Amino acid sequence: MSKKKIALIGARIDGQAGVVLDVFSYLPDYEVVAFYDSTPEFKGTQIRNIPVIGNIYDIAREKIAEIDFFHICIGDNKARLEIFHFIKELGGNFLTVIHPSATVSPSAHIGEGCFIGAKSVVQNGAYISEVCILNTASIIEHDNVLGKASQMAPNCTTGGRVKVGDLAFVGIGSTVLPDIIIGNSAFIAAGTTISKDVPENTTMIGYSAKVHRKNIYQDINS
User: Fold this and answer.
1) Hey, what CATH topology would domain 96-206 get?
2) Domain with CATH 3.40.50.720 in the chain
3) Does domain 4-95 have CATH number 1.25.10.10?
4) 6, 24 in Cβ contact below 8 A?
5) What is the pTM for the complete model shown?
6) Active-site residue list
7) What is the pLDDT of residues 118-157, one digit of tens each?
8) What are phi and psi of 52, to 5 degrees?
9) Is 167 exposed, middle or buried (0-12, 13-18, 19+ CB in 10 A)?
């Protein structure tokens, strides 16, 4: 049985492309045959013996047919969604890449072209839209809805029934309490606890500091 041919869009080996390429080392039925990247100095080079072709927007329709699946390795949510629509209009197909250590409920819906990283969990009834990124050890609890091209950074956690809008970003180590709605294109900074709804196009930074003048447990109760 021949391996499925995969083209990765985005070639930063020290970024998302490196993370995705590592997952393919666990997936023997797939072969990454090309990178596409708009960075001029990448074109014509090889990364891990895989050729970098050039800008994906220059791809010809006949080349699309030669690739079984594409996967976008770009952290920019807006760019990822735009490329997804461009390739779909040319007839291309996208592969959802799931690390073998991730846990995905059989009742969860995972959209086309998503990435689910190592140790991540997607619980029952969750709905993950297309080209979402769920990075390492992210936890998406039951009955969540994640919008198109949204992104969950490593170690972030959502409670039950959370809704995350299109193009939204939830930063490293953040916690979203149950039943919260995060609007389209919202940005949640690292380490933030979200306890109320976040309007679209809003940045939330949840760090705060308090000087503890006595035992911390006494402070909490004072």
Assistant:
1) UDP N-Acetylglucosamine Acyltransferase; domain 1 (2.160.10)
2) 4-95
3) no
4) yes
5) 0.91
6) 142
7) 999 999 999 999 999 999 999 999 999 999 999 999 999 9
8) -100, 115
9) buried
